[in-house]
Amino acid sequence: MSRRELGGAEPRKLLPGATVGLLGGGQLGRMLALAGSAMGYRFVALDPAPEAPCGQVTPQITAAYNDREAARELARRSDVITYEFENVDAGVAALLAEESYVPQGSALLYTTQHRLREKAAIEAAGVPVAPYRKVGSLAELTAAAADLGLPCVLKTATGGYDGKGQAVIREAQELEAAFTQVASGVAAPELVLEKFVAFRCEISVVAARSASGEVTSFPPAENIHVNNILHLSIVPARVPEDIQRRACELAETLIAGMDAVGLLAVELFVTEDGELFVNELAPRPHNSGHYTMDACVTSQFEQHVRAICNLPLGDTSLVTPVVMVNVLGEHLDQAVRIVYGNDEEANKLGVVPKLHIYGKTESKTGRKMGHINLLCKDTGDGLSWVEQTNLWRH
């Protein structure tokens, strides 16, 4: 199947000086623009929020994502268009693919916006996912749970992030409440029931593919979540090298098999016996790839620009061990004071904290406001810094 049939376009090489249009102006767009501007590219973002993080560092069109006239304005002002998160309007992305150059196309967006389509695409590429069933009613949920066995995780087929739109079901008496919670009163809900995988840890791999088909991947990150929000990414991941290698191979198989362009973040479960199951995909820069900004030869953001502009992909080698820790609204003020104060723990442990702040206008509890990349000789030192600062204990 050709790129045109997949909703993409014939590859073009775009050199510095070209303008990159961003569907979405959040922190990922901001970090894309900062990385790409250093390479000599110009940027313009489309985002409905005035003073969006990306709009603080690059021109912004303030309009809804489904505003087709605004999308056409973005097309007129851009030489290439990309998206910074997958919940943009797929219809607008398809329109832009017809009227502008969108090397990612709209097919991948359409696939990854829907968990059932995503799982089918992963299986079609020959990559394993956890057992799952489609669910549309309480009766179907009950039957699926009996089939898969408990515990299970019930998720919406569309939307949902950081634990939203899902519920863990451990006992049969929890089925009805979970269905009511996740379906949220929708008349004909589309839900996915996934068998709970007893995993040793979660890892993720950010793979990249250029418009002409060059593929590479970054070292796997070991991820730890708190309250369904990513808390830490540890690199190198604390799993055997053969598992890390297989994870990269799976990610590269997926990005090539799905004919994706740009970045594809692949989240995986690692079982006690070393099996790997893909959990979710994200066709964009990913929170767990933020460590690359300070710890790799090439960052994920530079790599994405290289991929969509059809430049040779950059070296993904890890320069230093690193622990990435997310800074939420409740952590922000103290994190700034620690990192830019007399950080005795960092000096004692030999850790170098690199704080990245996203520029969001309102700091809220549980909201990602930034992250810190802790560069260290050993990831244990970075983890000790996180523990000893006492910032994330509450």
Structure description:
The chain has 394 residues and is an alpha+beta fold. It is 31% helix and 26% strand. It is built from 13 helices and 17 strands. The strands form 3 sheets. Strands 9, 10, 11, 12, 13, 14, 15, 16 and 17 form a 9-stranded antiparallel β-sheet that branches. A 4-stranded parallel β-sheet has the order 3-2-1-4, with helices on both faces. A 4-stranded antiparallel β-sheet has the order 5-8-6-7, with helices on one face. Helix 1 (27-39) packs across helix 10 (300-308) and helix 2 (68-77) packs across helix 3 (90-99). The protein is globular and about 55 Å long. The model is unreliable at 1-7 (pLDDT under 50).
Characteristic key phrases:
globular, 13 helices, 394 residues, alpha+beta, single chain
Helix content: 25-40%
Low-confidence segments:
1-7
**What is the number of helical segments per DSSP (H or I, 4+ residues)?**
13
Task: Give me the Rg, rounded.
Answer: 21 Å
Class by SSE composition: alpha+beta
Mean pLDDT: 92
Percentage beta strand: 25-35%
Please describe the biggest sheet, giving its number of strands, its sense, and whether it closes into a barrel: 9 strands, antiparallel
Using the alpha-carbon principal axes, give the shape. Answer: globular
Order of helices and strands: EHEEHEHHHEHEEHEEEEEHEEHHEHHEEH
